[in-house]
Design goal:
6-stranded mixed β-sheet; alpha+beta; OB fold (Dihydrolipoamide Acetyltransferase, E2P); 8-stranded mixed β-sheet; 21 strands; 39% helix; 571 residues; DNA ligase i, domain 1; D-amino Acid Aminotransferase, Chain A, domain 1; binds adenosine monophosphate
């Protein structure tokens, strides 16, 4: 299939301000895509060339892309840079420069999706000395074949700035409509996606083997599983109602969740909560797991915590310093870590997703050889609420965030916020109701002291049923000067000209600047009230929201949902 067919779709999506319309455009298009191209087309719709967990990094800087445009267009780099200054966008620069491409002796033919795939994946594999030149040449070869519009989107894909506003769920919905004729079937696709969060695999399986094929998708070591989430309750009594009888309670540690996969070859791969490959950040943890987890092949989950010399847990902010690409060895010594293992999803060729938690606990305790850097979560098994409360007190004394209460009969519900896990945090025992993870989708210019920067941010929750983002508050309090300076820079990469298609906002909340839903922040709020200005659950808002911290570990779709806010409001 020609890349230009996808380019037409990009053009249409760019003009769309509605999620439903996006799904219509995409499903109409998916019907026409040949089976062999459907996986790549699904990734490209999201501006990716592979699933996120595969970390297919192209590693091209803007300067290199401008050089490639200059070379493909037969125009001096100086001229290209001038156009770039005027347009402020690499895509528009490429489109303009490549309007008049130099003729080649042999016609190059049109850029196909397959050819683009081959070129981009070749770029990914190149590294080391001389690789930048080779990468540039490969990009030039793609640009020479692309149409001017094609070059506009191609350069944006390469730089990771293609923002069509579609998310994984938009693609999943559209695939369901395209290949089964009924949006209701998205449930089947979601089930498969939860154990195989790879839109390419889902698309290809559906296109070639239909819904039956999706049922056969299995857990695979090396491919992350969408993580299970916890519900929250307002009162202790509710815990007992939701999980009657004997239950497990564990410390709720305030660190970073990790899903570790060990292959039969002994390789350990670490995935973050966003399902990104974070193995390179924690070579120390890889070693501890290889030594202390006694199994040939596994998928386990743990909370990573920063520790001091005595093994005491340090705050989340300290751990965040380990999120780095450089000086890793130095920081391993500076900020040692500990993994508190609390889940097992796969062991020596067998999936444990459908096994009850009590059985999973047995296996965790059997295979983890506890030590300072790799151990299991503190846990009690009880049917006594007084013991539960005492354990909660002990965890708070130990400076933990609270406790996780788990059903012993519960299975691992991948990607689901079910009642098998209930979180009970220290905030619940205070007046503040809770923290919320919100997505920044817009900003308002500041006045007075905040003149020249943003005064407040428009925040949204995720509506998982509709795959939309609904506004819930304006956030201006609690931001330190440092955060006020760094957040706009971070957000700059996600600026878009108009309200993104999946954002639902009232005209009273027309932001000065819009952002594609990407950046998640944790916000403490004192109350949930009805509001005619916000769209969360048809009109709910957070009162007195206060910024707590950035949640780089969460994707926009992992933010608090409108359903959760509604539940809390009703309670
Ligand atoms: P929250 O992010 O507030 O929804 O809480 C769920 C998160 O708590 C999980 O994603 C884990 O990162 C973290 N967590 C800490 N301790 C545990 C535990 N013992 N079991 C499960 N999750 C835990």
């Amino acid at each position: 299939m020609e890349f230009d067919k996808l380019v037409d779709v990009y053009e249409e999506l760019e003009k769309t301000a509605s999620g439903n319309q996006m799904r219509e455009i995409l499903s109409d298009f998916f019907k026409k895509v040949p089976k062999e191209d459907i996986a790549l087309v699904s990734y490209l719709t999201l501006g990716q060339i592979a699933s996120e967990y595969e970390s297919a990094v192209l590693g091209l800087a803007e300067k290199t892309v401008l050089k490639a445009i200059s070379s493909a267009g037969g125009v001096s780099l100086k001229k290209v840079q001038e156009i770039m200054q005027k347009t402020g966008d690499v895509g528009l620069t490429a489109e303009k420069v490549l309007q008049k491409k130099p003729q080649t002796l042999i016609p190059l033919g049109k850029l196909t999706i397959q050819c683009l795939y081959d070129i981009l994946h070749k770029i990914v594999t190149l590294s080391g000395t001389g690789s930048q030149d080779k990468k540039t040449q490969l990009l030039v070869s793609a640009l020479q074949k692309a149409s001017p519009q094609g070059a506009k989107y191609l350069t944006r894909i390469v730089l990771g700035t293609l923002r069509m506003g579609a998310g994984d769920m938009t693609v999943i919905d559209s695939l369901a409509i395209a290949f089964t004729g009924d949006k209701k079937n998205k449930e089947h696709l979601e089930r498969a996606y939860n154990i195989c969060p790879d839109v390419g695999v889902i698309a290809e399986t559906l296109a070639t083997h239909g819904l039956k094929g999706l049922e056969k998708i299995q857990v695979r070591v090396g491919r992350p599983i969408k993580m299970m989430l916890a519900q929250r309750v307002k009162e202790w009594e509710e815990v007992v109602k939701k999980i009657p009888g004997t239950l497990a309670a564990e410390g709720k540690y305030d660190g970073e969740r990790v899903q570790a996969h060990k292959t039969t070859e002994g390789k350990v791969i670490l995935f973050s909560r966003r399902l990104e490959n974070i193995t390179d950040q924690f070579p120390d943890l890889v070693e501890y797991m290889q030594k202390q987890i006694n199994a040939k092949e596994f998928i386990i989950e743990a909370e990573i915590l920063a520790i001091d010399k005595e093994g005491k847990h340090l705050p989340f902010q300290t751990l965040m310093q380990r999120r780095r690409k450089h000086d890793i060895e130095e920081y391993i010594k500076k900020i040692p870590v500990q993994a508190k293992v609390f889940e097992i999803l796969y062991l020596n060729g067998k999936s444990f997703l459908n096994e009850p938690y009590k059985k999973r606990i047995d296996h965790i305790e059997k295979i983890v050889h506890k030590g300072k850097h790799c151990t299991t979560a503190d846990r009690i098994i009880t049917d006594n609420i007084t013991k539960l409360k005492t354990f909660f007190g002990e965890m708070l004394e130990d400076k933990q965030e609270g406790i996780m209460i788990k059903s012993l009969e519960g299975t691992y519900q991948a990607g689901t916020r079910g009642w098998n896990w209930i979180k009970w945090k220290k905030d619940y025992s205070q007046d503040m109701i809770d923290t919320f993870d919100l997505v920044i989708i817009g900003a308002f210019y500041g006045r007075g002291k905040r003149h020249g920067t943003y005064g407040a941010f428009l925040c949204a929750v995720y509506n998982a049923k509709e795959d939309t983002f609904e506004t819930v508050c304006k956030l201006g309090t609690g931001l330190t000067d440092d955060m006020l300076a760094s957040l706009p820079i971070k957000l700059d990469a996600y600026k878009v000209k108009m309200k993104p298609g999946r954002v639902v906002a009232k005209k009273e909340m027309e932001a000065d600047v819009w952002f594609t839903p990407q950046i998640v922040v944790e916000v403490l709020a004192a109350e949930i009230t009805k509001s005619p200005f916000h769209t969360c659950a048809s009109g709910l808002a957070l009162r007195f929201p206060r910024f707590v911290r950035l949640r780089d570990d969460k994707k926009a779709e992992q933010a608090t949902t409108s359903e959760e806010v509604q539940d809390m409001f009703e309670k």
